[in-house]
From TrEMBL:
<feature type="domain" description="Fe/B12 periplasmic-binding">
    <location>
        <begin position="68"/>
        <end position="342"/>
    </location>
</feature>
<dbReference type="Pfam" id="PF01497">
    <property type="entry name" value="Peripla_BP_2"/>
</dbReference>
<dbReference type="GO" id="GO:0071281">
    <property type="term" value="P:cellular response to iron ion"/>
</dbReference>
<dbReference type="InterPro" id="IPR050902">
    <property type="entry name" value="ABC_Transporter_SBP"/>
</dbReference>
<dbReference type="InterPro" id="IPR002491">
    <property type="entry name" value="ABC_transptr_periplasmic_BD"/>
</dbReference>
<protein>
    <submittedName>
        <fullName>Periplasmic binding protein</fullName>
    </submittedName>
</protein>
């Protein structure tokens, strides 16, 4: 894997060993608990599996291709969709899918609801009833970590998805390859990752030919708290768009991409930024025009919001599904935001803010 840091794959005699390792990181904070580790042994169904002894002792055996998939996070659904195996989903988090056809299947009961991994452990009754070959399990907090052995004790192999721990956004895309190995869609996965990489390279080259511009991405969480992007994959997107982020710090997979700061610090460090991504779906309304007037981005009309590709009636946000594995699309928006000469197509996920006080 050229970019992934949270998992590696080793070829053996007709089967593969996958090691996954990462920490559970609190939202907007640091790692909690011990680092999590999982060893998977992927063996084709027609092949006799190796004994799970020696360095395979304690590993999870998965027969491939998997035909019944359970998932507890929206971006898993985006991965299965690009691989053409959404019809294999038998359980998902809930009814907030951006994909209309999948959401209809969930609402009809054809696909079970086990709860989203950011809020709670999977609902075991619904999970068992769906009879999955595997559970793709994002672990947003330690409650999910505690639930994992209970799921495994029920005979359901768990594939931990540590995508959010990847410090490079292309490391996130590599998870398409992992699910492709599970589903027998490696050719499709390789082609997808190569396509995203080509698009990213072209965008980076175009942006690098433009003058560098300063940019901040910080949303308001209420009170006197703002959440600026500081590190990891989200910060790399700003940097690769030839943007200079005054809040940028060292990458650290044991920390979330943002930290909370005060309005005073936001002004002190971000007031001269050329552009500002001000909002996303988590933001609280900020209406103090006197504060906004202190920012160059506001005065110059380069105020943007990550609120594109939404379906409010379904409470669905493609920014948290497809965009996670299509960083080229997000990077394209940021490049066009920062460099008007490159605005050759419409914005998709990040677009001009229409809700800021005028």
């Amino acid at each position: 894997m050229a970019h992934a840091k949270t998992f590696r794959v080793v070829e053996r005699d007709g089967y593969r060993v996958v090691d996954l390792k990462a920490s559970v990181v609190s939202w907007g904070g640091d790692a909690v608990g011990e680092e999590q580790f999982q060893r998977l042994v992927l063996v084709p169904r027609e092949q006799t599996p190796p004994p799970l002894t020696g360095d395979l002792a304690g590993a999870t055996l998965i027969r491939t291709p998997v035909m019944r998939i359970a998932s507890n996070t929206g971006f898993h659904e985006a991965i299965t969709k690009v691989l053409g195996v959404n019809d294999r989903l038998v359980a998902v988090g809930g009814v907030k899918s951006y994909d209309d056809a999948l959401r209809a299947r969930v609402r009809s009961g054809a696909v079970r609801q086990i709860g989203y991994g950011w809020h709670s452990p999977p609902a075991l009754d619904a999970l068992v009833a769906s009879k999955p070959d595997v559970l793709l399990m994002s672990m947003g907090d330690m409650k999910n970590v505690g639930a994992k052995p209970r799921v495994e004790a029920l005979g359901i192999p768990v594939v931990p998805i540590f995508l959010d721990n990847e410090p490079d956004y292309m490391g996130r895309v590599e998870y398409v390859r992992l699910v492709g190995m599970l589903a027998g869609r490696e050719t499709e996965a390789e082609a997808f990752v190569a396509m995203v990489a080509r698009n990213v390279d072209a965008l980076k080259k175009a942006a690098a030919a433009q003058p560098i511009r300063s940019v901040i991405s910080a949303w308001f969480s209420g009170g006197d708290q703002w959440n600026p992007v500081i590190r990891n994959a989200d910060a790399k997107l700003l940097r690769d768009a030839n943007g200079r982020n005054p809040f940028e710090g060292p990458d650290d997979p044991r920390k979330d991409s943002f930290n909370r700061i005060s309005t005073e610090e936001l002004i002190a460090r971000g007031r001269d930024a050329d552009c500002w991504i001000l909002r996303d779906s988590h933001s609280q309304p900020f209406t103090d025009r006197a504060v906004l007037e202190r920012f160059k981005a506001y005065r110059d009309g380069c105020l943007f919001a990550a609120d594109g590709m939404t379906k409010p009636e379904a409470d669905a946000f493609d920014y948290y599904e497809t965009a996670v594995i299509r960083p080229d699309l997000v990077l394209g928006d940021i490049v066009r935001m920062l460099h008007p000469a490159l605005r050759d197509q419409p914005f998709r996920y990040i677009r001009l803010d229409t809700r800021a006080p005028q």
